[in-house]
Specification:
Length: 377
């Protein structure tokens, strides 16, 4: 859309904050943002007060029509010149009845100190850290797998709720959903609206899940002698905490790293940089500040290396293990076993194949439109 000089602009509800020399302007309700210079923010404020595009250009030294076009593309404009502009729908919040007033305590300065108590308790009982063999707490392999699955998804749910609660305390309509990271099925919480919050709040939201994971691990470690499943919880949490280091898969630590380095789209910019290098183009980072360029180059080196390592693990370890489990269960069913053995084999097949079906569904929901567009071409 290229608005005419006499056009007025109606925005969706907007917020803004300073980010270095620029201003981040956007919608908390949909998580759509754009960076504009100081003059760009002044133009937005003028347009929001009812000035036309032409009047804004006469007051400020910028091309207001181009700015409005950019804001339309970003999904921030409701109407331009009386014409409705297509824009993303607001995020459909998970637990919409959970209001900001219900969870203000999640951003209280004393809460980190309370979470530190079980974490410190766990550190005082490091002699109780179980060995990985304690994951096999029963002779029945299917029962062990059922227990792992139930505990793991319960812990994952608690982690994501921590993100949701802290984001909601900041006024952000977070949404929990299933997604994919390479070959992994993951739960994820969309807190993209947090971009307008102060840095302390943003970092609290990013790290809230890890803080809860550490607190749960500390409690389980403190009382690990009471039940074998507590040792399982400790080991599952340790594995999940180690997985946070895989920042090339956009884990919680990735978002922390992105914020601390001042990058606005570390993964996207690094991906575009790598594609440009593959096409023989250089100098694609020239418009970025020096610190951002250094961070992007480091992340761009890590991205393909980590991706190849994960895919290699899937091919060498995960796939053969899944094939072994599936063929074993099918062989059991083919041998016309008794009811208990048949139920055990069916349950094992469900536990192995079920997550892969969910992964395929989540992957297609995200990438399906692009795949269909390529096929149509």
């Amino acid at each position: 859309m290229n608005p005419h000089p006499g056009a007025t602009v109606e925005f969706h509800p907007l917020g803004w904050r300073r980010d270095g020399d620029d201003w981040i302007v956007g919608r908390v309700d949909s998580g759509d943002f754009v960076a504009v210079p100081e003059e760009g923010l002044r133009a937005v404020l003028l347009l929001e007060r009812g000035a036309t595009v032409g009047e804004t250009e006469r007051v400020l030294d910028l091309d207001a029509a181009d700015l409005v076009t950019e804001l339309c593309r970003a999904g921030l404009v409701r109407t331009a010149g009386g014409v409705a502009v297509p824009a993303p729908d607001p995020i459909r919040a998970t637990f919409p009845r959970l209001r900001r007033r219900h969870v203000r305590w999640a951003l209280h300065p004393l809460l980190p100190a309370l979470l530190a108590v079980p974490i410190l308790s766990g550190l005082l009982h490091l002699d109780r850290v179980p060995g990985w063999e304690q994951l096999i707490w029963s002779a029945n392999g299917t029962l062990v797998l059922v227990t792992w699955t139930a505990l793991l998804w319960s812990l994952v749910g608690l982690h994501e709720v921590a993100h949701l609660v802290t984001a909601r305390a900041a006024g952000v309509p977070a949404r929990i959903s299933l997604g994919t990271r390479l070959q992994f099925l993951v739960a994820q919480t969309d807190v993209s609206g947090i971009w307008l919050a102060p840095r302390r709040v943003r970092i609290t939201v990013y790290l809230s899940g890890i803080a809860v994971d550490l607190a749960v691990a500390g409690l389980a470690l403190t009382f690990a002698d009471l039940h074998p499943l507590l040792a399982t919880i400790v080991l599952l949490q340790l594995g999940r905490l180690l997985a946070q280091l895989l920042v090339f898969m956009r884990t919680d630590l990735y978002f922390l790293l992105q914020d601390l380095t001042g990058c606005r789209d570390l993964y996207g910019d690094a991906s575009r940089y790598l594609r440009a290098l593959l096409c023989g183009r250089t100098g694609t980072l020239g418009s970025l500040p020096g610190r951002e360029r250094a961070s992007l180059r480091l992340y761009a080196a890590l991205l393909p290396a980590g991706t190849l390592a994960c895919l290699g693990f899937a091919i060498v370890v995960t796939l053969p293990l899944m094939v072994t489990l599936i063929t074993g269960a099918l062989a059991t069913l083919a041998a016309t076993p008794g009811p208990l053995a048949a139920a055990d084999a069916l349950l094992l097949l469900t536990l192995v194949i079920g997550p892969e079906v969910l992964w395929a569904r989540a992957w297609w929901r995200r990438h399906g439109p692009r795949v269909r567009a390529i096929i149509v071409r």
